[in-house]
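Let us work through a complete example step by step.
Step 1: write down the sequence.
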Amino acid sequence: MNKVKAKFEEESEFVYEEAIRAHKNILDTSIPIWFWIIFAWFASDNIAGYLTSPIFFYPLVLLSGLAVILHQLGVLKLIIELGLP
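Step 2: predict the structure and record it as tokens.
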């Protein structure tokens, strides 16, 4: 009887952890740090190009300013929490 109960608890714990991972969209694999460093190195010229373009830069500045204002008012955290599933 104890084996059945232990097996049930083990499987239910596994299913619970899988459900939490699926809800939070957490994957079992992680991208290594060295890949992010190489990615940032090769993408730096594209990012600099995007920031020098007024089509991307002005909306980025406006959205950043809006985010700072909402953070100062204490509303940004509420908006982020409402946006998460």
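Step 3: interpret the result. Residues 35-85 form one domain.
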